[in-house]
Amino acid sequence: LVDDCGDRSDEMRCSNHFKCANNEHFLPINQKCDGVIDCVDFSDECNEDCNKRILPNAMYKSFAWLIGSLATVCNLHILVNIALDVKNCKKATQLSNKVQIFLIALGDFCTGLYLIAIASLDFFIFSDTYCFHQFTWLTNHGCSVLGSLNTFGSLLSII
Predict the structure, then answer these.
(1) Which of 18-27, 66-75, 104-113, 114-123 is the least confident region?
(2) Cα dihedral 150, 156, 157, 159 sign
(3) Average pLDDT score over the chain
(4) Rounded to an integer, what distance in angstroms lies between the CA atom of residue 68 and that of residue 116?
(5) What's the DSSP call for residue 159?
(6) What is the mean pLDDT of the segment spanning 78-98?
(7) Residues with Cβ < 8 Å from 86, sequence gap 6 or more?
(8) How many Å apart are CA 158 and CA 65, to the nearest integer?
(9) What does residue 57 show for φ and ψ, rounded to 5 degrees?
(10) Residue 156: Cβ within 10 Å count
(11) Do the beta carbons of residue 48 and residue 42 sit within 8 Å?
(12) CA-CA distance, 99 to 44, in Å (whole number)?
């Protein structure tokens, strides 16, 4: 960008750049929403156009709540029934089948908990501020625990 007037007044009306919110710093428009923070106030990455959220739209949020709730409730029901019924197994194959179903249900239960937790974080904690807290969240123990829970659930479901 070229400051022809010396006071940047010629830059204010151009559409080929982006102005950082808290200062007079101008960036080429292709540096807006590119995943690299160029403005000290994060305004090039954290704005309405970039849509940085954990769950980017209402469809993802709805499915996370719906599938997470169904997976948690239904698989909890299965886990309780198998735990109460395991003593009635007369043969080793019956017990083996119950254990395998129990592990699959436990894995899906963990994945359901993960989806509910992510949807809750997106709705109650971060909402429109996720972009500003993204680095802190991604390096936080809570994110690691949820990632581990999801990985554990996924691995149990394929055993």
Answers:
(1) 18-27
(2) positive
(3) 87
(4) 5
(5) -
(6) 94
(7) 95, 98, 102
(8) 23
(9) -150, 175
(10) 18
(11) no
(12) 52
Q: Tokens at residue 50, please?
A: 């970039």
Contact 82, 95 (CB under 8 A): no
**Percent of the chain's residues with pLDDT above 70:** 91
Place of tokens 């972009």: 131
Tokens of 93: 């194959």
For tokens 């101008």, name the residue.
26
Tokens of 24: 């007079």
Contact 40, 22 (CB under 8 A): yes
* pLDDT above 80 for 123: yes
Look at residue 6 and tell me whether its pLDDT is greater than 60: no
| pLDDT at res. 70 | 98
